[in-house]
Amino acid sequence: MIVSNTHECFQVLDLDLQISKSMNRPTFRSISPILPVETLELIFSHLERHELVPVIGSSSLFHNTASRVLYRTITETSSVRAVQLVKTLASNNAYPKYVRSIDLDFANNIITANLLRLLHRVLQRVNSLTTLILDFSTTDNTADVAWIFEGCSFSLMSFTSSMRCDLSLARFLATQPRITELSLRGFDMVYDFELEPMALPKLEHFRTVMSCPDIIREVLKGRPVQSVSMSLHAGDVNTSLDSLLLSATAIKRLTVMSFESEPPITLIPLIADRLPQLEAFHLVVLMTNYTQVRFQAMHGVILRLLIYADDCFQETLLELSASLAQFKALKYLTFMAPGVATSFNDERSIAEAWSKACPTLQTIILPKGLVWFQRDENWACLRDSEE
User: Fold this and answer.
1) Are 62 and 56 in contact (CB under 8 A)?
2) What residues does 375 pair with on adjacent strands?
3) Nearest alpha-carbon partner for 70 in 81, 79, 156, 14
4) Which SUPFAM superfamilies does the record match to this protein (predicted)?
5) Which of 175, 268, 351, 381, CA to CA, is 20 to 30 A from 91?
6) How many CB atoms lie within 10 A of CB 265?
7) Stretch 147-151: mean pLDDT, rounded?
8) If you write DSSP's letter for every residue of 108-168 in order, what string do you get?
9) Do the beta carbons of residue 66 and residue 56 sit within 8 Å?
10) Rounded to whole angstroms, how far apart are CA atoms 172 and 170?
């Protein structure tokens, strides 16, 4: 019998239960020969978390299999459920061994010392953990939270956290040689953060939203990082971009969120000069080409507003062609500027101009969100295909 979906699988189970009752034989013993444990696990993986709870309580066979599915990946955005989950894992001896991924968000709460101790105990017990995401509030991140990793024996491949970058966190990262993806999205507070030279030997992808060139430099230095996502702020642009040169291998993918007040025509050459071998470049410009307005406010205070010059936007993007010519292997390019209106024809013209300057381009995404690609020597988008 070929079972094509979850619903049919449960029909098979129901049929077997009925046959078992009619033949007066033990019900759940008959399930195993028809559906191996691996098949049951596949079926249960299609259920929502709240649907797995009654399954766990239905039989010993279902309990063990469904528990593996339920606790393999833990994602809780509700602080109440997250606390309940931490308590369960801290007190139960069976469930921690199933956990492979944890994602807990306490960013909107002030956590207590007792909860941190419980979380510490859980992290010491989830020895098979490979992915960990922990977010804490600004208040909690002013203190050393990384002590919760002391005594842990798991080996992560991906780690994301908003906790402050200090020596405690650096010591923890030094114990995780299998990490390939690292995301530090903490707050712009300066602490001592120095990684051991041999730490993170397999790091390939690094993301940060902090405006701290020192941290970028410390993470990339001598490590085989190929993909970086970063923020650029006025005054730190050159220093942050120089940090990208410290990777042990050429960076192939770069995502930049720019808060720089200068127009993008000045930013692209800085990146192209340092990373001419980029294959994918994604740029989100939150401050681009502005017109300065000065006016007299109340109480005689002079205010200056930066107002976007929308009519200059297309011209600015067309001027980027010369800078894009410096990239030798660029295939994928995204340029987004929230709040900026561009017409369909404007974006087609921009895509054509950019592709002439950079012939290696394969796809381009512009502010309208349309994916432009080359088709029959012309540039088209999905809207063209639909029409």
Assistant:
1) yes
2) 378
3) 81
4) RNI-like
5) 175
6) 17
7) 96
8) TS---HHHHHHHHHHHHH-TT--EEEEEE-TTGGGS--GGGGTT-----SEEEE-S--SHH
9) yes
10) 5
pLDDT tens digit string along 306-322? 334 445 566 778 888 88
pTM of the model: 0.81
Residue with tokens 């940060």: 208
- List, in order, residues 6 or more apart from 283 with CB less than 8 Å away: 255, 256, 258, 264, 267, 268, 334, 335, 336
Question: Quick check: helix, strand or coil at residue 80?
Answer: helix
The partner residues of 308 in beta bridges, in order of sequence, read 290
* φ and ψ of 296, to 5 deg: -90, 120
Q: Is 205 helix (H, G, I), strand (E, B) or coil?
A: strand
Asked whether the beta carbons of 98 and 67 are under 8 A apart, the reply is yes
Structure tokens at 25: 């034989």
Residue 19's identity, in one-letter code, is I
Q: How far is CA 361 from the centre of its chain?
A: 25
Out of 3.30.450.40, 3.10.310.10, 3.80.10.10, 3.50.50.60, select the CATH number for domain 73-288+314-381.
3.80.10.10
State how beta strands 302-308 and 290-296 pair.
antiparallel
> Which backbone phi and psi does 286 adopt, to 5 degrees?
-95, -15
266 vs 291: CA distance, rounded Å: 16
The tokens describing 346, both together, are: 């404007």
Rounded to 10°, the helix 49-56/60-72 angle is 150
Q: Is the pLDDT of residue 193 over 80?
A: yes
CATH 3.80.10.10 boundaries in the chain? 73-288+314-381
Token pair of 75, please? 């994602």
